[in-house]
Design a protein that fits this description.
four-stranded mixed sheet, alpha+beta, 47% helix, 11% strand, 2 domains, elongated, Translation Initiation Factor IF3
Length: 242
Amino acid sequence: MTHWEENKTTFPVIDVRHLTSNFLPIILHRAQQVNVGEGLCIVQTFEPKPLYSALRDLGFEHVTEKISGHEYRVYFYRKEKKSITFESGADMPFKPTAIVNYKTIDDELAGIVVDFWEHIWETENSEIDIKTKLLLSMSNAIGASRFRQATRELIKAYSLGVTVKELDELFSLFAWNQGIGYFSSEIGPSTVFGVYKHIKNREKSGVDRKTILDELMETWGDKNPNVTTLYKQTAKRCEKCE
């Protein structure tokens, strides 16, 4: 047991079990305010593994306690202070918020999905680097006409350093593999092609990558109904349904 674990029960508690929306930004914002030598406790109905790497990149270490089949408590202790950046991965766009959808169905199912996500995206000493995995995932998504997913993967890959020249070659392959007709009618008008065009045009104008990323998230972030993975009710809110 580390020295801080003796005091973990005194950490401020953030209980996100009742939330059906994206709770990750809330936690990341709160975590950045924690001083070195202090901590916080996250309570969730499934083990929130995506938080581990995100907060580790901010200088936290953690211990997890399974209280019951529907309650996990994760205690995060800030050992050092690191800045949040896209490059560190801590603030990489589009956390796996779709996991919340599985939580709505069943907590155990959400836990299974988290384990699968961790196996694919958090494997230590992976032979394929994360940027390449994202581009492969993007390509698979385009091949299946899942432009929502493809858009998210492209923006994440760009945050990790993918170049315009790489994207030029990739979109040329889409035209070759999918066919000119499909490319013209489906890929060309898609959100993922819009992101690619924005990146290329803005870099040509000399805009830096961080500014471009901010612009991408403003236009094609989770507020965009064609990109978000969470249901957004546009009709009058039904309090009985919440």
